[in-house]
């Protein structure tokens, strides 16, 4: 399925990608999210923090004479918002055994601080990227100058094909055992009877030993440890699949023991292949995802990443939940704003508390009490030529809906707390401290940029409301 989707996307790429005279200000160019300068953005190949900079690696696919070329793109940022493109890191796999270019697959990056790999050549700590090929082998590339230039490990593969469809290596350090761990998606092969992720461990990042297999976890896995809010420093391990489903449990360095059933991190159709940051400052868990499937008609690029989010675990009446909230750095690009407090909203066209607020990139934060409202919501990118996009909460069904996506959402102490981040091509919703989220892409009408807060069938009490237009991270560097 993944390869079919990739083939269809390449076909679209061949007939699109027109030039634009206004780089970084094109009609559908995200203004606060990362997007490639040109070509097609695919899955992340690494997300790592080193010497005060965030490094994002990603597949960048171009076409020349109807033959696609896959490079590992590289960008750096000091705040996870303002990005600088660097030269492509390397070509992951020029050809497979079949003689064709390799399909992009997720990879991961780490910093070998103790030089256990022995790959260090100068003063810089080695930066390593782990990646797959279409033959099911796992490979390694490394940099000794902070990610500016790269070499492929001379003894690749580091893990020979253990069975078909082995891909998407995620590497992380397990402190209690002092071992490096590699989580690999596999559908069959040695020690595997059902699809899931296999765990390998290593002391030197070069030689890997199989330890266990966890079923019912999809491709593009991530594995990380998260603190429980208010849990007296208690932490839990999380296994996350590319589709945004996760299990919480315990990992001893060899095997994962689930304590919950599979839960959903994001209900949107455009959230895929999320990665947590290696070596995050302050011990935070920072995540970024590929917003797969977005449409960017007539643009010189295609694709964007989600806004980086901070992850926490929270105890709720429905059990322990993994929560996502946009990074605090968003406040540094606030522009115009509206703030309201303790307002009673009734049905009708008058009294729009967001009246006068316009923009194509903005953040809304609100705490709302449904009272006797049948439904309420926010309409974004509204105008004379467009009815905009409706983000609506149904009080009786207890669901939030946008772009045909429905997400269950119950009030907490009779309140709905919500954050809505809108960019030129995307909407991201974080409800009730980020317990429930939706990531979705859209293609709004150019120039239609009004906002409407409304209620139907009854009153809505607005305990607090703030809306901020956001400065472009590309045009306001």
CATH superfamily of the largest domain: Glycosyl hydrolase domain, family 43
Number of E-state strands: 33
Helical content (DSSP H or I, runs of 4+): under 10%
State the shape: globular
| Percent of residues in beta strands | over 45%
Largest sheet: 6 strands, antiparallel
CATH class of the largest domain: Mainly Beta
Unreliable runs: 10-21, 96-100
- The end-to-end distance, rounded to whole angstroms, is 40 Å
Give a summary of the structure in a few sentences:
By secondary structure, this protein is an all-beta fold.
Give a verbal description of the structure.
- There is one protein chain.
- This protein is mainly β and 477 residues long.
- It folds into two domains: 2-14 and 33-326, Tachylectin-2, Chain A (5 Propeller); 334-470, Sandwich (Jelly Rolls).
- The chain contains one helix and 33 strands.
- It has one helix at residues 2-14, and strands spanning 39-50, 53-64, 67-77, 83-86, 108-111, 127-132, 138-143, 151-152, 167-174, 179-186, 196-202, 209-215, 222-227, 235-240, 245-251, 256-258, 263-264, 272-276, 286-290, 301-302, 309-316, 319-326, 334-345, 362-369, 375-382, 389-394, 399-402, 405-408, 416-423, 426-431, 436-441, 450-456, 460-470.
- Strand 27 and strand 28 form a beta hairpin.
- The chain starts with a helix and ends in a 7-residue tail after the last strand.
């Amino acid at each position: 399925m993944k390869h079919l989707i990739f083939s269809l996307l390449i076909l679209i790429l061949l007939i699109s990608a027109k030039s634009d005279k206004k780089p970084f200000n094109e009609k559908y160019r995200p203004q606060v999210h990362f997007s490639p300068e040109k070509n097609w953005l695919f899955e992340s190949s690494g997300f790592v923090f080193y010497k005060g900079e965030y490094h994002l690696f990603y597949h960048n696919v171009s076409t020349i004479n109807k033959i696609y070329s896959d490079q590992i793109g590289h960008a750096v940022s000091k705040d996870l918002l303002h990005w600088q493109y660097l030269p492509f890191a390397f070509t992951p796999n020029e050809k497979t055994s079949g003689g064709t270019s390799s399909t992009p697959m997720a990879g991961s990056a780490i910093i070998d601080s103790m030089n256990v790999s022995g790959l260090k050549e100068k003063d810089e700590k080695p930066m390593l990227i782990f990646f797959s090929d279409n033959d099911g082998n796992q490979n390694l590339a490394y940099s000794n100058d902070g990610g500016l230039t790269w070499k492929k490990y001379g003894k690749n593969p580091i893990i020979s094909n253990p069975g078909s469809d082995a891909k998407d290596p995620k590497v992380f350090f397990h402190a209690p055992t002092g071992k490096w761990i590699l989580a690999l998606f596999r559908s069959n092969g040695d020690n595997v009877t059902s699809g899931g992720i296999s765990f390998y461990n290593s002391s030197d990042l070069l030689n890997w030993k199989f330890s266990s297999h966890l079923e019912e976890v999809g491709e593009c896995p991530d594995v990380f440890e998260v603190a429980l809010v208010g849990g007296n420093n208690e932490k839990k391990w999380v296994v996350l699949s590319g589709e945004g489903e996760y299990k919480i449990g315990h990992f001893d360095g060899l095997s994962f023991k689930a304590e919950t059933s599979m839960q959903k991190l994001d209900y949107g159709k455009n959230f895929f292949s999320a990665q947590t940051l290696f070596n995050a400052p302050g011990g935070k868990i920072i995540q970024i995802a590929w917003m797969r499937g977005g449409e960017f008609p007539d643009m010189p690029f295609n694709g964007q990443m989600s806004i980086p989010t901070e992850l926490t675990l929270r105890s709720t009446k429905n059990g322990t939940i993994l929560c996502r909230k946009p990074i605090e750095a968003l406040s540094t690009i606030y522009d115009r704003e509206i703030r309201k407090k303790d307002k009673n909203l009734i049905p009708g066209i008058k009294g729009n508390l967001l009246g006068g607020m316009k923009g194509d990139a903005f953040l809304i934060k609100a705490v709302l009490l449904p009272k006797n409202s049948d439904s309420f919501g926010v309409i974004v990118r509204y105008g004379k030529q467009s009815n905009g996009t409706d983000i609506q909460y149904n009080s009786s069904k207890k669901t939030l809906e946008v772009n045909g996506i429905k997400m269950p959402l119950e009030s907490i102490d009779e309140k709905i707390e919500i954050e809505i981040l809108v960019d030129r091509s995307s909407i991201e919703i974080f409800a009730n401290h980020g317990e429930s989220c939706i990531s979705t892409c859209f293609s709004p009408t150019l120039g239609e940029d009004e906002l409407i807060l409304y209620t139907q069938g009854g009153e809505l009490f607005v305990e607090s409301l703030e809306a901020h237009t956001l400065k472009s991270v590309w045009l306001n560097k």
